[in-house]
Description:
By secondary structure, the protein is an alpha+beta fold. The chain has helices at 55-64, 74-77, 79-97, 123-142, 144-155, 182-189, 230-233, 387-400, 439-442, 462-469, and strands at 193-199, 212-219, 225-228, 241-245, 251-260, 265-270, 293-298, 306-321, 330-337, 349-351, 357-364, 382-386, 404-407, 421-422, 450-454, 457-458, 477-484, 487-494, 496-499.
Amino acid sequence: MSTENEGTEVPADPSAPSVPPAPPTPPAPTAPPTAPTAPAADVPRSDQPTQVQPQVHAQAQADAQPQPQGQGQAHAQAPEPAAAQAHAPAAAAAGAGAGGWPPPPPAVPAWGASVPPVPEPAAPRKRTGGLVAAVLVAALVAGGVGGGIGYWAAERGDDGISSTTVSAGDSPASFKRDPGTVAAVANKALPSVVTIQAKSGGSGGGDSEGEGGTGTGFVYDKEGHIVTNNHVVASAAEGGTLSATFSNGKTYDAEVVGRAEGYDVAVLKLKKAPDGLTPLPLGDSDKVAVGDSTIAIGAPFGLSNTVTTGIISAKNRPVASGDGSGGNNSYMSALQTDASINPGNSGGPLLDASGAVIGINSAIQSTGNGFGQSQAGSIGLGFAIPVNQARNVAEQLIKTGKPVYPVIGATVNMTDKGAGATIAQEGAGGTPAITPNGPAAKAGLKPGDVITALGDRQIDSGPTLISEIWTHKSGDTIKLTYERDGKPTTTTVTLGERTGDN
């Protein structure tokens, strides 16, 4: 696209030489005329530099001052007049050299003759230059689409033949998205994801409703069970109301089947589940690798059916989070993702590139410091409960309505970090720190011992120990490494169990 003359003054008519005002004088019969030389300053030269002005500035000048004649058309009209001007004196000289007098009439007015003024260009042509500049300015503002339009307007010329119609004839008749693309995965998964509205029972009695919140869940089975986070439904679990809205806009009432505060997992059931429910397939979170693609679906800040993408940033992140109601903290050995997760995404599925659920989006790390903000947004640090753990919890809740936790039978310090998980000197309320005849007691642990590894995982704090224990099942036997008086020792522990949250 050539724009080198936009905003630059060009002589009104390159074919007309600069002339003196005096009328022509007949030549003397004894002296043949010689070819006159035009003043160099009056003839445009192709080798002279042309000043290029920015497009936006050129348009501003066009609006403020009259357009110079022929502006924006120098490339189309300059060559032919320049050629004619160059040949006129040469023809006169050729006639004199042939011996004939007077010489043949020149092709253009004789040197010194008055030249009739060039008529002003028609108004449409003047507006065309303005249109080109205006479209180019719009291209800078509109981005990619505007850029394409600006290019067409600058290159089409003034012949008026080109059409402004954009043809879509080359588009495929039936476009199909290949399996594994984000669009294909989202299109298949969205009908199985629901937006959950939870409202507490209120404090006024009767049918009054209190505060509520928005979260996400997904279809777990054809019977209408929905898996989500405990903190999504906690406010409505006792006397409140729950509803689930599908991507097609249909809403169904729901009820809590079971909740696990420690795992931050809950299972709902639709009261009148529709036919044809499609459960989301469950993947294997143990096989997830750092760098794998992720797709999160949820309702961030109430914006239902929002799809975001990212990767697995890390695995086995120890995360402790509360439900915001003063209840017990939850602990998870989480999958970390940089897919955008915000309030309202909680309970939604984290999918892999095949569309299988690999986690439940549950928590975010944020820089929010509470300056007038009740909710913080994503900074690319999101955490999801691994689906292998969530599956075990969901099955237990559907079966019995109560969670089952694997335990070690020891109270550990939850504040120290870096050196391991230190077994406290006593438990809550003055109870023994080591449960008599429990798993830790049978493994030979004592108060003051520092647990530094469980299986092949390094332990740096109490929350890390709990998060790792809860990735297992009660009855599992695991190698455990601890330090006593600075000396490392290895033993094995068989995990016990605790039923319920209280």
